[in-house]
Amino acid sequence: MPSSGPESIAVIGAGVSGCAFVAQLRRLGYTGTFSLWETGRGPGGRASTRRSRQDRGLRIDHGAPLLNITGAMEPLLLQPLLAGGWIEPWPGLIAQLQGEATLRPGQADALGLGQLYRGRGGMDHLCKGLLSLAGEAGEAWQPHYGTLVRHLDWKDGLWQLLDREGELLGQAHWLVLSSTLLAHPRSRQIFGWEEVPLKQAAERLGDLRLEHALTVIAGIRAEARSNLLVLLEAAAAGPWASLPFSLLHFDAAAQQRWGLQRITVQPLSDGRCAVVAHSSHSFAADHLDVYGTHSAVARMLQLPPDEGREDTVIAALTTALEQVMAPWLPGLNLATADRQLMRWGAAFPLAPGLPSELSCCPSSRVGFCGDFIAGVGFGRIEGALRSGEQLAHELCALA
Ligand SMILES: Cc1cc2nc3c(=O)[nH]c(=O)nc-3n(C[C@H](O)[C@H](O)[C@H](O)COP(=O)(O)OP(=O)(O)OC[C@H]3O[C@@H](n4cnc5c(N)ncnc54)[C@H](O)[C@@H]3O)c2cc1C
């Protein structure tokens, strides 16, 4: 049913939920304009793919390697994404590692239950597909990548988005946050910001629902992950292709033993192979201050590399990977392989999250979407997709 919706919307974050929100807005016939603000180089967020202009064949899914749909009703955007060829059924083999070295083929964890899919040609194609459903960028909508929104202000009935220097980036009638970064006190600890940007702006609005939402968001905690990315040349990649799994997840005892939670094996089309070893939560918690030169936070804060400490973490994860793979790849030595550290400070939000009835605050014209919204798929891509869809329906219904 066509709906006018608010005149203009500023969406912060081009991860799955922000992209799902704008895709669903358009499908509902939204006729206003929107802008999309993303600090990363492109869409994807925690479901993005590392690529390189210098190395066209490089493609590493360094965050989520797949998505799983567990709800009785599938997300509305799933079939359009499949029909457009943006996602495909996940073709890999899952296994669980129990304790020291017991392999349970076919045994899934919570991230491997239900129907499994992946971005076709890389996980970032999930978000690219969602944006294609929102229509061509142009007058109706504008993406702004590589742009950190640092301050928020409410002036003359419009939300203003400002950069680090306080310069105006853009303004809109509605503000949609698809991340808690501007609403959570952790931004003060991580970035040394003096205030929580949305809280400061909200204090002047007197919207009790928004204040309630901000109080709940402030209590949401998240688990971190320190991921080791390994790029193997074609000569060394062969044995990885014949493993009895392409996604190995670790039970609690194995996580404690190895400090790892998952290993994903990602063959590249040119014969090389990427391997991503996801650390356990407790390993990441013990090394929280080691960002990794390539992490989003390091880029945002323009942090100087701490190569000594980073090398120590890379070495610890490499040793764990070499040892845990020994039953299948005896004598594995990754010393000469290209290895990088990718730290996700807030990889998975912890339940219960923000109740969905607080995700839309009409008096202050603020909406929230993201995997931190309580409901089916919480903390996963499924939840991010559903929350974006849901918020689009709520905003269009308000018109
Ligand atoms: C290592 C890892 C493995 C995972 N594995 C799985 C899995 O197997 N299956 C699964 O379903 N899920 C998995 N997840 C979780 C999944 O990635 C997330 O649930 C999902 O991607 C969240 O999407 P989102 O849109 O809610 O948030 P995000 O992806 O975090 O998107 C928010 C975006 O907002 C941007 N942003 C925030 N603040 C600002 C600002 N002020 N200015 C500009 N931009 C801003 C951020 O850069 C980010 O791109 C994994 C996550 C990680 C980290």
Structure description:
- With about 400 residues, the chain is α+β, with helices and mostly antiparallel strands.
- It has 2 domains: about 190 residues, FAD/NAD(P)-binding domain; about 150 residues, Polyamine Oxidase, Chain A, domain 2.
- Helices cover about 30% and strands about 25% of the residues.
- The protein has 12 helices and 21 strands.
- It has a 7-stranded mixed beta sheet with strand order 8-7-16-17-18-15-19. It has a 6-stranded mixed beta sheet with strand order 10-2-1-14-21-20. A 3-stranded antiparallel beta sheet has the order 5-9-6.
- The radius of gyration is 21 Å and the shape is globular.
- The chain starts with 7 loop residues before the first strand and ends with a helix.
- The structure holds flavin-adenine dinucleotide.
- The site of flavin-adenine dinucleotide has 40 residues, from α1, β5, β15, β19 and α12.
